[in-house]
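[Q] Does anyone have a clean structure-token version of this?
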Amino acid sequence: MSVLRPITPEDHADVLALNERHVELLAPMDEARLDELIGLADRSCVIEHDGQFAGFVLTFRAGTPYDSANFRWFTDHYREGFYYLDRVVVHENFRRLGLGSVVYDELEAHAQDLAPVFALEVNLDPPNEPSLAFHRQRGYARVGEQVVDGHLVELMVKPLR
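[A] Here you go.
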């Protein structure tokens, strides 16, 4: 069984280690930055599968004073509002179990009453082809691209209403 539950201080080491293993597709994060993001996030959750740490997710509501360049892009382009997925990372040992679909189903349902679109970005350089395919299959469409910290990303949204 898979669930999302709030990140606790006991989870920090696992979250930081998983983020570091995939930092080429994410932004760097240390303990202080994790604490800061948890304080700003709408959802800061561990993905738990059968009682084990299987990943984590961070989401933000429009209007949050979050300093991400991609978040600011959506702020500039979606004045009617958006719900932003900053990062979702599934541990290597738990891939191909359908956890991504479970997580997205829950997050999209949560966001429906909060915003007209669900917003995120996926790396184009370095490429993250599995993520692009997953998001396109779920109905996310390209709305732009930009280079941030040397990474070319595709900005995507999915209508929620």
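[Q] Thanks! Anything notable?
[A] The beta strands are 2-6, 43-49, 52-61, 83-90, 117-125, 141-148, 151-159.
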